[in-house]
Amino acid sequence: MTDEQPQGTPADRDRWRRYLAAERAEAAVYRELAARREGEERDILLALAAAEGRHEAHWLRLLDGDDGGVPRADLRTRMLASLARRFGSIFVLALAQRAEARSPYASDPHATPAMAADERIHGEVVRGLAARGRRSLAGTFRAAVFGANDGLVSNLALVLGIGATGVAPGVVLFTGIAGLLAGALSMGAGEYVSVRSQRELLEASAPDPTAREALPHLDVDANELALVYRARGMEAQEAVEHAALVVARVQAAEQVHAPTDALAVTEHDDEAVGTGMSAAISSFLFFASGALIPVLPYLFGMTGLAAIITATVLVSIALLLTGATVGLLSGASPLKRAFRQLAIGLGAAAVTYLLGLAFGTSLA
Hints:
mainly alpha
């Protein structure tokens, strides 16, 4: 009697080994992240790791239990695992979200429909977890990224524009420092006013908690509560029915207190908005740090074209980093966002440089 032939062609089995390596690495990522979380988030991450374990078992079964020759996971997945071990941060979740979205199972005949569906749902689960982290830093992070980017672009444009006119290096340096301070103070003040105004608008939209006290005394046949729900977007009949249910429930219980959904509205998220002072400080510091970079060559005594080229190179590197960071956190392509940021920043600087050359020539 001959031995049973292994399943699949050699090419199939190589692919299954790659999938097996990827599933093991992804499960390790989720376990590492879970080790740094507590409560519900920890449970969710462990459930994701268990799901990856089921997928691992599927490929191992096709390989007849032979995991010999399984390659290392791809570089991106290994980096995710390394980052998860060291940081366990929102960046790892954002990268994991992108990794789940690239699953090849939907088009692979040896992956089950359930596995393909799992991977799509995993992407949404990770998106939800990442969204929690994004909300927790949204206000301050927005101020930080915008501040740094504005500082980089505006002060590079200012320094290149003034430098192109041919004035003394000391004038360029002083102009750059003045632009740094003026821009940082303006950004900080503007961010403070913007965030405070947004919070005040949201607070004005919150329901009056004392309005609940009127619920037990409403007339079921002339239910004013229906107007509240209509004002919040319900259709007229739906609002009447929902309001009658709420009032009947309150009166039947004989409690001066409404059910939790009686006057509920979508609550505003103070964490997502941030505080005015934290946003102002972040905006000031990050604008200043960004605006300092174009000035550095002049601070170290460089002049002329060498200083302009050095400032442009330094700012280009910083723009690529900020663009990639935004891309990572938003779950989008870091490379695309990085080059978009670079193109916008250098485009603005090029315009002012050409204007500076034109003015320098006319004043000569």
